[in-house]
Each structure stands twice: as structure tokens, then as C-alpha cells.
Amino acid sequence: MESDEDDFVFVGTPIEREEDTISRKKKSIAEASGQLRTLAPWKQEVRDEEGRRRFHGAFSGGFSAGYFNTVGSKEGWTPQTFTSSRKNRAEIKQQDLSNFLDDDEKAELEGNSLGTSMQFDTFGFTAADIARKQSEKEQNERPSAIPGPAPDELVVPATDPIGVRLMLKMGWRRGQSVKSSKSTHYDARREARKAFLAFAGPEDAEVEDAMETSAELPADNINQLQKSTPVYVLNPKQDMHGLGYDPFKGAPEFRDNKRSHQPGNRESGHKRVPPKKDSLFSFKSRNVAPGFGIGALEELDAEDEDVYASGYDFEAFVEEVEEPSRLAIEDKKQSSSKQHGVLPGFKAASNSDYQLERFDPPVVPNDFAPHHKFPATLEVNQKSTEVPPPEVPSPVDNNLKVLIDGVATLVARCGTLFEELSREKNQSNPLFDFLNGGDGHDYYERKLWEARQKHGDKTKPLLKEKVAPSAQKMTAETRGNILGEKPLNRTEKDLKPVVPSTDNVNLQFHLSDTFTEPASFVEPTEIAKPFQHEPAKQERFEQYLKEKYRGGLRTIDAGGSSKMSEAARARERLEFDAAAEAIKQGKWGKESQLSGQQILGASAGLGLQFTSGGSEACIIINGVSQAEEVITKSMFPKREEFQWRPVPILCKRFDLIDPYMGKPPPPPRSRSKLDSLIFMPDYIKAATEEKNTISSPQVDGKKRTNVMDVEDKVEDENVEVENVERPVDLYKAIFSDDSDDEEENSNINQQEEPVKKVEAANTTLSRLMADDLLESLGKELGLEVPPDQPYKQPQQPQETHKPTVQDIPQKHEPTTNSAAHKSVSIQTTKESNNEIMKKETKVKRDNNSSDDEKSRRRSKRDYDSTSDSSDGYRDRHRSSRHKERKKEHRKHSKHRHHESSSRSRHSADKEYRDSKREKKKRRD
Amino acid sequence: MSAEDLPKKEANVLKGHEGAVLTARFNRDGNYCLSGGKDRTIRLWNPHRGIHIKTYKSHGREVRDVHVTSDNSKICSCGGDRQVFYWDVSTGRVIRKFRGHDSEVNAVKFNEYASVVVSAGYDRSLRAWDCRSHSTEPIQIIDTFLDSVMSVCLTKTEIIAGSVDGTVRTFDIRMGRELSDDLGQPVNCISLSNDGNCVLASCLDSTLRLLDRTTGELLQEYKGHTCKSFKMDCCLTNNDAHVIGGSEDGRVFFWDLVDASVVSSFRAHSSVVTSVSYHPKDNCMITASVDGSVRVWKA
């Protein structure tokens, strides 16, 4: 320290510390204000503004007195020199009175305009004076539009006088007269209470406010009296009346009304209008939890909103819950709102002349069915609602019978258009006379009717064994056909109640007919379409039902198409089971409590498929929705199982044995593929890019973290270990000059002639890249990732690499079972090969690169770390360890492969799941 | 236990919280209870005598969940300040604060040995914190959830958590596997049956669902209450005969476990019932509500 000080040479004059003078000044001021008043006059000392004593007695003072009080300089009094040169003319000074005056004399001169200091300016006169002077000065300086001095009234003091400020602090408000201290005290308390109420929350405040108003009517009167001094509030003129015109002059009641419409104008007069939301303590008029706020430094955000109070009362309580207290409040609100519309001084008329004309909605006819009918199928409807033609014996001609049967079926299936078409086409054909009312027409009619009945029935999924055996004759393809023309079948559902002669199909429905309205008759079997959205599935479902109710052996592809997987088929079968049961239940329920409304609802729900804009409420009653509900029930809860690896420490804390103890680290879900990608050269990456585009951005991040962890995680047996390879490898490549390494390299060189050739071509390139390598090395030392293998140029042809690459692993890992190795999927071989390949190329490039480069690198390394030898040792050590690890890694990859094969059964689901997770992760 | 024995009579009202009470929990033997609320405090009560014993203040935001060890020596709590607090009961000091959740922490539980705290957060993760070491880093993060994790339960070998993504996930430490039961509805709260075979999940479609834990099968659904937008608790009685759930209209519902019929329901609070907790042995129940009170109910 001392030596340090010796070194310093001080040049120039030290700057006087500001603090000293300031403190002295402060002291003087304090003394001036404090002492002057308290001390007796003879004890007071006069000091200058610097706080120095100025006047001395005859025998005191000495040098200081003479020096400071007389001339003010060390040298004594010196005359001012007069200099004037040709270049620098002495300016002729305009002499002034002030030139001959001392400071105190000047101050005295100023003092002839006596004023109160701001401190004691009780009524603000001085401030006003100063302001006026200021304005005058300004006026002089710049001419304004209005000449002459500004009128006094316009000039207002800029600050509040101290008296006003004091009174404001004591609770006085502008516009109030100064009354006894008692009332102001009361006022202050009232203000405080109001603030508190606002603090406590809007609702309570309201209630208590109401209480207050009732209790404080007399107090209010006093208030009115107190507001004696007028406050001039300059309101912007917003109306279109003339200046000074008061439209409410004769009718002040209206003014109140108007004011209540204008929220901004409640300043004067109406102090009682409670500022509900934007009171002092309710933060930004948001819903804040009552009772307490947040800290001053914290931001108020969404979390602080009082979710429990937000509008809940209006949502749920009013709708669903009858709570007496709530209702009472509601009533009160209503009554108040009723009062609101009436002007004060008026009351609502009991009978008004003006009658609001009301237009009743059009009456819905009773037979109105709330669904859309398509015109094309209308005819079918009409036809089908006809009284069935009597049964007619079939024509004698067997050919004609067959023909009629066929045509009838077709017409029933395809609609009357087909009939017309064939009629036109076969007009001349005598065989088709039956179409035009000729021979066999009656039989045709009958057949057509039957076919239509059948057609309508065949979608019935045969819920009961009783249900028409004819329907069971339907084949899958006809059903498919039918499903193609859903609208056709659907419209048949409002069959008029007919009395079918012998058709036992409708027999059971006649039972229900007696309970229901004729118009809304529904075939309950129509309801059983739980899979309307998927025709194929519906078809399978019907097939399933058929088989179920027919009993007996199941066909081969029962319950699902052959295309489906076993699992999917099983799932579907479960679904069908549930659906069938639901339908049965729904039907049962319907039969047991047949209410017309329910069926109406059901029909509306069915119509919904076509109208799509129909009432959704009906669906709830609908059997379909029931079925769906059951299906969702059967789908949820859905159980899935994943592998999950608890951390060893967690197992320890739970006093459990780690299930993964000693086992290799598990492949992280959905990461296994990605990891391999990290070290893939560009061309393979490009090939797989399409598959993994989603995950590619993540790769970099992951890689970075992995590499960053290299230094401290080397010891750990971790998933990341495999990624560690690269930097370690790099070090090895650069720094280790072990003999074994050299041997290895030479071996490789012998083995990899083609590679070498390619590499020879790349030598120059690699030399060029050496600098880049250095850079990347530096980055790695700084724990950063070098850019992803920029030297892997497309110059290296794929073909030359592949064979060599496949040789290497066997060379490197003699312990690895080659057979097992081969069984590894191409993906894994590729990845591992690529890793190794990269390593080799790196090594080789290093060999190729000249020695001086190597040494250069090492020197750089030396620069970075102090101990070279130990470093080298560590590198060697590491490299050997690294080899072991690599073997391990290979095993892992095998393990992983097995696992993946075992998982392949759920692979579809899992991959979907994984991708979902992946996405989620990415979101994070 | 018949329906008459259900705790329907108000025995005590524990008042002291300023603002909503978000959680109320009995301790292991049921002699004391803890409550936490929007006033950022945790309060320790004797519910049977209606006495307020202690207040724990350190949370910077609302307290959403609290749990006490079986030896009554430590408390863990969590809330809006994204931290899990580890308290000493007797001194009332915070021993440790576990930071790491990226967002509010919804639920927290000790494990059997009070050595690990597992917390469930709005940040879609479960985090396990080690109470034995001095590290404040989580020892494990489970982030397979797709949405906010609302509730967590621990058994001796498993971590069970319910999430808004509709799943109840069971992390079996012993087996090293994760079972995910998708309920299709956001799960608000889960509660284990006392025999440990079932898990009761309160879903946001105003339905409580009882799942069989071994098969993942849906055993029963309990409806009638309102639970659509708030984090509300559900629980089972100590003999697993009834299911208890609060409602957003301030009612408390009792369902029969087997036939899912509403055995009883009564108005317990004037506002949302945020939490219910059942006494481990007696017919006693505490409920907490947004109205700021904790009520003790006895048969």
C-alpha cells in the first residue's frame, strides 16, 4: 500500500469536494433557521452563505477578519486592470446602479417589494403575485394576440396555498365550508370507512352503503349545509344550447336524470353516487379477491383475479339453484330497476293509452313434423302410405312372375324414377304391360308394396328374434346399397298408421300405435344406428347384430372386415356389444314408458341427420345418443401402459428397489431415433428428414445440452453417454499419440483403401477445414457445439462408404456377436455405422493432416489448459474407457431393438402417442 | 354405517381466514386440521374444539394445498407462488422452499416416510422433491401430462395424479411403469379409497368417477352436484361406504358408493365448497369454502 502511494505523483490542484461545501451550507441553513429564532439576539452570529463567521469583535478575527471582510483576496485590494488592444477592444461598459451596489444592498433594493415567503403563504397571495409578475414578464417578452396586461382573474397561482394544503390534509374538501372540528373529524372518519368498504369488496360495500344511507339521512342534511362555498368546475360544453342557457332551469329534476346518464358529471352535488369499481383500493377495477391485496411491487395479473366471485352468481345460481337469499336480492334488484325508468316526480301510469301491438307467432299445425322432406322421395312416401293392395295370386306365367318380382324389388330400392324410366323404355314391350296397368298389374302393385315394406324393414337390425325373418335374408351388399341411399329409407319412417293385412313385421308396432300419435310413428329399429358416420362400420354392426340374434356359429370375418387388425377388431366387437345392449335398453325403456313426446323427440332426432339444423335437445332423449353415451363410456376410461423409469433416489426414498437397477438406461421415449440422427451425416439426414421434420429442431437443443454435460457426466452411466463420444473422440484424435491408436489407425488404413482414396481427395479439404476444426475445438472447450459436420460434403459418395463402414464395427468389436449384430435393424446399423465412420474419418483426417498442424493444435490446447501431460494422460484414459462404453452402447442398441420389436404390437398406438408427446414437449 | 350417521350437523365453524379457503385437511390421526387459503396463510386448528392454534405465514400468494406428515412434525404446502414450502410445525418456520415449477402448484403430498414431497403443477408436470437432502432441485420430473396436473395421491409404491387432460396416471415405482387411464373429461381431484383399490376422480363435467385401480375399469359415476369450473375436492368416508363431494352452490353431497344414489345433501356453505376432508376414524368431516370459513360436521 505504501509503495503504491509512493508511486503517485500529484499534478494540478485537487478539486474541492462538493460534499464539504454542501454540508457546510446545510449546516448554515439549519443554524440560520434554528438558531436565529431560538437564541437571544446578542448571542446570534452572522454568517455568510458559506457558513463562515463574518463579523468579529475588535479583538477577535485576526487575519480572517481582515482577509475576508475587507478585500476578499490574499493579495489585498488590487485595482482592475484596463486593457484594450487593437484586436481586443475593451468594451465600453454601460454603467448601472447595480454596478455600484453590494450584494446586500442589491438584496435590499429587491426587498422593497415585500412578500411572504412561500412557507408562510397561507392564502396564496404571494404565489398569485409572483405568477402575475411572471406573466407580465412573459407578456413583455412575447407579444400576444390580446394586447395589454392579462386580466387578474385569469392569472391563478400555480401552487395551492399552504393553508389549503393543510386543510386538505386534515380532511377538508374543496367546496366545503370550514366548520367545527367535530364535523370535519366525522367527515374524515366517514371517508376512511368508505375507503375501507371499497377495500373490502364491491358487494359488501353496496350493502353497507345502503345501510348507511338509511342511517345517515340527517347527517346528509348537514352535509348539504356544509357545501356552502361554491366550486367552479369547468365542464366542457357538450350540449348544443346557447351559452349560459340552462335547459333545466325550471325543472331541476331532469338535471339529475340527465346527470345520471352522463357518468362523468357526478362531480358536484352528488357525492353519494358510490364510485363502485374504480375506487381507490380496487385495483384497476378488476375483480380482486376481497380482504387483501397483493404487494406494492407485484404486478396484478390473471392469478389475482377472484375467480370465485366472477360472475358466478349470475351464471349458475339464477338458472339452477333456488336460493332464497339470492332470490330476495334478485327481487330487490328488479324492483329497483323498475323504479329506475321512472323520473322522480312522476309515477308509472297504471293504464297507458299506447298499447304495444303484438304479433303472435304463427300457429304450428298439429301434424307438422319438424324435419325436412326431400321432394324426390316424397312420392315414395305417398306411395308407401297407401293402403296396401290386396293380395293377388301370382300370374300363371312364371317368367312374368319373375320379371315382376325383379322390377318390383328394383323399384322399391331405387324409387319411382326407375319405374318411370323402365315404363318409358319398354312401352312397346308387351312383357312390361304390367307397368301400365296391363296384365299382372295388380300383382305388381302387391309385390311393389311388399318389396317396399321389406325395404323399409331391412335396416332394422333385428333386435328380437320375432323380427321379420324376411329381413334376415338381406345380404351385406344390399345393405351397402341401402346405406348408399340413406335418405330414401329415412323418409319412410313416418309411415301413416296403416292396418297391414297380414304382415307380421309391423305387428308388434301396432301395439305402440295405440299409444302414440299417428303422425309421429317411428320405427324404433331405425334408431339403432350408432355408427351413422361410418357406413362401413354400421354395416359391420348390423352384420354383428344379425349374427348375434340368429345365434349359431359365427362367420369367419365376424365383427369386422378382414382388413382390420386383431386388436381393432376386438375393440370394435366390444363397442358393438355395448351399442347393442344400449339399443336394447333404450328400446326396452321406450316400450315400458311410451310417451308420445319421447317418440316425437326420437323422430326429430332422426330427422336431424338430414336437417342438421334441428334441435339438439331432442338428441338427449334419443336412443342414438344413449348408445353413443354408452359407447363413450365403454371407450373411457381407456387404459394405456408405458414404461416409466423412476430415478434411483426416488426409489430409495420410497424404500423400494429400483426396478431398473443394473439394467441399461432405457431408451427415452421417442428419442431413440432422434439421437441417432444427431451424428448422421447430411445425406442420411436428408433421407430421414421427411419422417422427422417435426423433431429436428429439438435435436439441436438436446445435443447441445448433452455436449454441455460432457465434462461432468463422463463418470455417469447415462443415456447421454453415447453422445459423449464425439468430443472425446475428437480429443483422442487430436491429442493421443498412443502406439495402440496408431496401430489401430494403420489397421484401418489397410482395411479402408477405398476410403483412403476418397479421403486423399479430401485431404486438401480437410487441411482447409483444419482451422474450422480448431475453432470448433475451441468451442467445445467452451462447451459449445460446433456446426453439424460441415466437412461431410457430398463429395464423399455414398457407395464408397457403405461397404467399408460395415466392415469397421466388426473390426472394432470383436466381442460383438456378428449374427446378433446383423439382426439389428438397418436403422440401427446405419446409425452406429455412421457414428463410427465419422470417427474414423476424423482420425484419418488427423493422420493425413501434417504434424505441424497437430502440434499447433496441441499448443493451442496448452494455451487453454495449464498441464499438458496430465491432459494427455486423461485423454488416453478416456479413449480406452470410451471404447468399452461403445461396446456397451452397441448392446444397448440391440436391447432397444428387441424392445421395439416386442412393442410392435401396439406400435401404431404408441407411435401416435409418442408423436403427441413429442409435440407437447416441443411446445414446452 | 347408515345414512343417519353421516356428519351433517355443524359442530364448529373455524373462522379466521380472510378470503376464500382453498384447502382443508385432517392430519393423520384426525385430531387437528390444516387449512390454507387466498390470504396466503396456512392455519392449524383443533376442529373438535374449534380452536385456532397457529398461523403459518410465508407464502407470497394463495395457498392451494397443504399436507402434513404422519408424525405431525412437518408440513408441506404449495400455491400460487410456484414454490413448495416445507415447514416445521412447531416453530412455524420454513425449512425449505422447493423452486422449480414453472407455474402455480396445485397439489402437494408427502410420501409414506415423509422423505419425498410430490407436487403437481399447472405446468403439466409432477415433481418429486427430496426432503432429506439439502438440494432444492427436484429429484424427478414427470412431464408426460398434456395439461395442468390438478391433484396427486401417493401410496407406498405409487404416485397417482389426475390432470386436466382427462387422465389419471399411476406411476408405479416398484414396477417402473406408467398407467394412464383416460377418462375423457378433465380431472379435478383424485382421492384414494381407504382400501387403496379404487380411485375416485372428480371430473369437470360434474361427475365423480370411481375407477378400479387394477383394471382401470369405471366402477361407478356419481352425479347431482355442480363442478364445472373450480378446483374442488372429493373424498370417501373412512369406511368407504359413501362418496362425498362439494358443489359449486355450497352444498355437500353424499352418495352411496355402490348404487351411486344421493344419500344426502345439505347446504354447508354460502359459496363454492373447495375442499372436503373426512376424519380417518370418526364420523366427522371438515369442509372449506370460498366464503372464508372452515366448518366441522359431525354425526
Automatic annotation (TrEMBL), chain A:
Q: What is this protein called?
A: SURP motif domain-containing protein
Q: Does the keyword Nucleus apply?
A: yes
PROSITE patterns, alphabetized: SURP (PS50128)
Keyword annotations: Growth regulation, mRNA processing, Nucleus, RNA-binding, RNA-mediated gene silencing
Note the PANTHER family from the entry: G PATCH DOMAIN-CONTAINING PROTEIN 1
Q: Where is the composition biased (Basic residues)?
A: 875-898
An example Pfam family from this entry, by short name, is DUF1604
One GO term under biological process is: regulatory ncRNA-mediated gene silencing
Q: Where is the composition biased (Low complexity)?
A: 783-798
User: Which Gene3D superfamilies does the annotation name?
Assistant: Surp module
Q: In terms of domain of life, where is this protein from?
A: Eukaryota
Where in this protein does the record put region Disordered? 133-156, 243-280, 736-757, 782-924
UniProtKB/TrEMBL annotation, chain B:
**Keyword Disulfide bond in record:** no
- State the WD repeat positions: 14-55, 56-97, 98-130, 266-299
- Subcellular location as annotated: Cytoplasm
The family database entries (PROSITE patterns) matched by this protein are listed as: WD_REPEATS_2, WD_REPEATS_REGION
Q: What is its main location?
A: cytoplasm
Keywords from the named record = Cytoplasm, Repeat, WD repeat
Instruction: Give the GO cellular component terms, alphabetically.
Output: catalytic step 2 spliceosome; cytoplasm
Q: Does the keyword Repeat apply?
A: yes
GO terms, biological process:
mRNA splicing, via spliceosome
Q: Name one Pfam family in it.
A: WD40
- The protein's superkingdom reads Eukaryota
- According to its UniProt record, which protein family does this protein belong to? Belongs to the WD repeat MORG1 family.
Mind telling me what this protein is named?
Mitogen-activated protein kinase organizer 1
Traced from the root, the source organism's taxonomic lineage reads: Eukaryota, Viridiplantae, Streptophyta, Embryophyta, Tracheophyta
